[in-house]
């Protein structure tokens, strides 16, 4: 690892610790030339998940967009933010473990809806109304009729 102070490529590790719930390793290093200390982080380089939108465009998976949609759908419901964060964590884990680097936005939406249905039915219908682009009350009635 190159020293940020003198540029030397020789350093020794003084301390290593797991961080980010095991997702990274923090290493405290000391340069063998100038003897100054610095910190480095080592983590797995994950392949991005690409979402193929309905119009054919491609975007990187953005957990913030999904989280914002869930917060909006769960507005004025007493659902802790942690519940939505866990839902998005599970979703992202599922998408990464599928070993498919591209996923359709429809599949992402279906997975979110399946998880949200178990959490809160009102938030589910609100999220579905945006996802399915409900036009009128009949669309809401159909969605409610299809719920178990």
Automatic annotation (TrEMBL):
The protein's required cofactors: Zn(2+)
Gene Ontology terms describing biological process: negative regulation of DNA-templated transcription
GO molecular function, one term: zinc ion binding
InterPro entries reported in the protein's UniProt record: ATP-cone_dom (IPR005144), NrdR-like_N (IPR055173), RNR_NrdR-like (IPR003796)
Cofactor binding comment, as recorded: Binds 1 zinc ion.
The keyword Repressor belongs to this UniProt entry's keyword annotation: yes
Alphabetical keyword list: ATP-binding, DNA-binding, Metal-binding, Nucleotide-binding, Repressor, Transcription, Transcription regulation, Zinc, Zinc-finger
Coiled coil: none
Zinc fingers, unnamed class: 3-34
Residue stretches making up the ATP-cone domain: 49-139
Record's keyword annotation contains Repressor: yes
Family per similarity comment: Belongs to the NrdR family.
Biological function: Negatively regulates transcription of bacterial ribonucleotide reductase nrd genes and operons by binding to NrdR-boxes.
Name assigned to this protein: Transcriptional repressor NrdR
Organism listed in the record: Dethiobacter alkaliphilus AHT 1
């Amino acid at each position: 690892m190159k020293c940020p102070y003198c540029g030397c490529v020789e350093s020794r590790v003084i301390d290593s610790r797991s961080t980010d719930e095991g997702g990274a390793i923090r290493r405290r290093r000391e340069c063998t030339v100038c003897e100054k200390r610095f910190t480095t982080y080592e983590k797995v380089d994950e392949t991005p998940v690409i979402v193929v939108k309905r119009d054919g465009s491609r975007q990187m998976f953005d957990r913030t967009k999904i989280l914002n949609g869930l917060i909006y759908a769960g507005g004025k419901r007493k659902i802790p933010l942690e519940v939505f964060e866990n839902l998005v964590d599970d979703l992202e884990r599922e998408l990464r473990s599928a070993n498919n680097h591209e996923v359709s936005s429809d599949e992402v939406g279906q997975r979110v809806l399946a998880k949200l249905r178990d959490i809160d039915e009102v938030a589910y219908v609100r999220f579905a109304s945006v996802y399915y682009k409900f036009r009128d009350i009949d669309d809401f009635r159909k969605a409610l009729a299809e719920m178990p």
